[in-house]
UniProtKB/TrEMBL annotation:
InterPro entries on file: Acyl_CoA_acyltransferase, GNAT_dom
Source superkingdom: Bacteria
Protein's name according to its UniProt entry: GNAT family acetyltransferase
Gene3D superfamilies (UniProt xref): 3.40.630.30
Organism: Paenibacillus graminis
């Protein structure tokens, strides 16, 4: 079952994000990986900044989360994670479909360039990589991330040129 995450879910969300983010260890640049990958305070700040999390619940257990953030003319998919033990079961695709159905805006997704599995997942679900010059523009317009992360990230879109 997919449902809106609530305050009471924050600990489970924290656990899911940090469990799933272990996949980045040794893949993304070492200077960008740390444990925990996302602190509790950072999670709370993301929610306060308008990231709305949806969760996939199975047998009463939250096992996947995906956030969406309204940025005016576009929406951003933020923090899409599924517990390691429950990957490859369609949870991410169900969450993504659920979120896509709830907005008519273009959707952008930023992820690590080295996270081939994530890029493949989004392409399989109808997204396309944007060109490098457009990526840089979109990351500076819609995200607040360090330059090092801009250099090592990609952006995917479910539409043509969302900023034009």
């Amino acid at each position: 079952m997919i449902r809106l995450c609530e305050k009471k879910d924050e600990e489970n969300m924290y656990q899911i994000i940090n469990d799933a983010a272990k996949a980045y260890q040794g893949v993304i640049p070492a200077d960008r990986y740390h444990e925990p990958y996302m602190s509790r305070d950072e999670l709370v700040r993301e929610i306060q900044d308008g990231v709305v999390f949806w969760g996939f619940e199975d047998n009463g257990e939250l096992c996947g989360v995906m956030g969406i953030q309204d940025k005016g003319e576009v929406s951003l998919i933020r923090h899409a994670y599924v517990r390691t033990a429950q990957r490859q079961g369609g949870i991410g695709s169900k969450l993504l479909k659920h979120i896509i159905e709830r907005t008519s805006k273009p959707i952008l997704i930023g992820t690590w360039e080295a996270a081939n599995w994530a890029i493949s997942f989004y392409i399989k679900n109808g997204f396309r990589l944007v060109p490098a010059d457009e990526k840089r523009h979109l990351l500076s317009q819609y995200w607040s991330i360090p330059e090092r992360q801009v250099e090592t990230s990609v952006v995917l879109s479910n539409q043509g040129r969302p900023d034009r």
